[in-house]
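A common beginner's mistake is to predict each chain separately and then try to dock the pieces by hand. The better habit, illustrated here, is to supply every component at once so that their relative placement is modeled jointly.
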Amino acid sequence: MSAERVARGDARRDLMDIAIDCFARYGFQATSIDRIAKAAGLTKGALYYHFKDKEALLFAAVTKRLSQFERRVVTDLAAVPDPATALREVARVCLDHATKSNHRRMIVTLMVEAIDTNPRLAAEFRAMMHRFRMFLKRIVQRGQDSGQFRADIAAGVAAEVFTGAIMGAEIQYYQDPRTFNLAATITAFIEQFINWLSAPAPGSPRPLRAHRAAEQRSRRKSS
Amino acid sequence: MSAERVARGDARRDLMDIAIDCFARYGFQATSIDRIAKAAGLTKGALYYHFKDKEALLFAAVTKRLSQFERRVVTDLAAVPDPATALREVARVCLDHATKSNHRRMIVTLMVEAIDTNPRLAAEFRAMMHRFRMFLKRIVQRGQDSGQFRADIAAGVAAEVFTGAIMGAEIQYYQDPRTFNLAATITAFIEQFINWLSAPAPGSPRPLRAHRAAEQRSRRKSS
Amino acid sequence: MSAERVARGDARRDLMDIAIDCFARYGFQATSIDRIAKAAGLTKGALYYHFKDKEALLFAAVTKRLSQFERRVVTDLAAVPDPATALREVARVCLDHATKSNHRRMIVTLMVEAIDTNPRLAAEFRAMMHRFRMFLKRIVQRGQDSGQFRADIAAGVAAEVFTGAIMGAEIQYYQDPRTFNLAATITAFIEQFINWLSAPAPGSPRPLRAHRAAEQRSRRKSS
Amino acid sequence: MSAERVARGDARRDLMDIAIDCFARYGFQATSIDRIAKAAGLTKGALYYHFKDKEALLFAAVTKRLSQFERRVVTDLAAVPDPATALREVARVCLDHATKSNHRRMIVTLMVEAIDTNPRLAAEFRAMMHRFRMFLKRIVQRGQDSGQFRADIAAGVAAEVFTGAIMGAEIQYYQDPRTFNLAATITAFIEQFINWLSAPAPGSPRPLRAHRAAEQRSRRKSS
DNA sequence: TATGAATGAGTCTTCATTCAT
DNA sequence: CATGAATGAAGACTCATTCAT
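With all components supplied together, the output reads:
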């Protein structure tokens, strides 16, 4: 049994990776300590040697993934000056993390589960989402400042739209990975989004619409 | 004790409504039979009189909400010939169900939870999502057929983008109802989305409204 | 299995009685829920139906015994005007509860265990002990007020001595019930105690400490 | 980590001292091997190097304290010829060990816990208590033989009363060290006790020293 | 219809103990 | 001497479910 585990490789790491896997698929409550331990070729006792709690394991896992994701986003985008490219990059990283690993799925799954079920974790996720939207908002604002993006859009709302569209696409994908084409959906969205943000061709009349004015107003309040 | 429950109104209905409430907030597994029964002013035994199973209750609840939602969408939109208006209407109904009741939240919550946890329920939700996207796809196609929407967009992908954006916005809202402005986000998205659908294929000159209408007309003739 | 339990008799009562028995002998921590349940011919689940917690069972048991004991003490002594007789009665009731049931042993055992182990229970016991000493103190004071007991003794200290002597005797008895003669010990103590409290024969000089010391000294010489 | 431990001083001794501390406060079962080890700045493994067992540690600790206590009692009293003084000395040593260290508390705590929980330890304590009472009994008998104490009291019962009174006082003190005045209680008791032993048999006229000696002598003859 | 009592399987957690290094 | 890693048994507690009344 213990032979199944890899050499000297930290049992702790194994445990966490397996936990992440399970949390991504089944959520927190439906993942039993026993399942994780067994999958790691260990006993429950061993798990409790490495983690104080089921919750400690959860937090370790979440923190690991969260920081990985955020570091990756930040790293990949530090060198990208063009806002549109930056947004495309963010989308690409999300797509990557959603399809090639269970990073994003774990986050999404736990986030939904935690809302009214685990206040502490919920707070963590709320903060994370906030950071993510702030990050996007700043990119949008940069574009607006440089005149590349139109200024009559609330950057915060844009960030919310972006965040939601990615996450919603992911969920559809997790639900039906064989049928749902996540890449196509995200690509379509991102182009649509950038197109929307991009200023109209100079000279052409600004396409006003009643509701835009409203948007404008709400934005003013929030700023 | 039972006096607290409302009038003659079927205990069954009470039970289901409460179950929906709990499922929406805590999900299926974290909602105990006892919690529902107690909230309904009954004992567990009574619940088992009305429902064979915890799962039976779940399915009853889900089916009720699902059919309500779908009926509402279909009903409200049967009379809407204009595709753009129809899309706006769909968004409005979603917004409504997300903010004024727990209809949508229950669906989203259970959907995420069920994916790898309850195959039967997952199938149900997959089918529901499929129907919803098909429904949207047809609206988009109608728009494309009428020349109102550009034809170089895959209607299916558009439906996926739409579905995801709404759902992703909702989740952000459920996570942080006091801070997140769901209405603004959905409104912004829907306009962006319709704008995207209405825009000319990239490369072609951006058409003015008047031209578009003309185009539209000539397109209809040629089809 | 369930046949072993008595007819309709509240399972709850059975459970508590058995719990009291076990707590008296093994203390709280060493008494497993399972042992109690099995001894009652039930399963753990049944126990948890009747008591929220192991602690709830503990408190129910303690409260029951405590109030029984205190009620008995108060009842038996309401009609006893003579302080000396009252004290003898208290001792008799303690002896009774210590030898004919496990009332007192449970209290003593849990009290010692709880001190630094269960703050809430410890507080309960502290309060109980306090009440008991106050009760004794008042009896002593009554005797002092009536001139039956000498006034140069601190009533509070007398209560402490009394309480300790009874409890200490009990513990020796619990430790070695076959050898230790609890009745004799308690009787001897109570007579000694009352003798001590009783005022010296009228006319004879009150044996003050100073005199005693003198006595002592002269005594040593003569031996 | 191990640097925190004092100098060269045998880890074994440290371990035992800490164990005694914990046993005194929490008893045997509630004291985990881990707690002791950590408090000693070691790991569980090290503890198992020094002691075969948790029980081995327990017995080592108990034996150490017991022999210390008994040695001290015997040592301090070897040179005390006067029985009353000897009794006062015993009480003083108990008071000392109860207030200035956890010697006595450990004994009392474990004794109560062990009764029906650890037969071997219980036997040890039974024997210890027996020895202690025998020791006291001999002192009382010495007093009776010398005519200093009245002869109509069973020396064994007197020993039991004494032992119980001290122990009962201690427990009240352990339970409530800030409020309970152990010194006063023990002092009051010991004076009362000696007074009792020294008093004439009830009914007979209070005998003067001379008479008592005579009584004593005649009594010896008749027995 | 509904209740109260009970079951039993499953889950989290603790802890004494072992052992290779 | 000592540690770090791990085990396995036992214990507390939860919960869906059953059933006589």
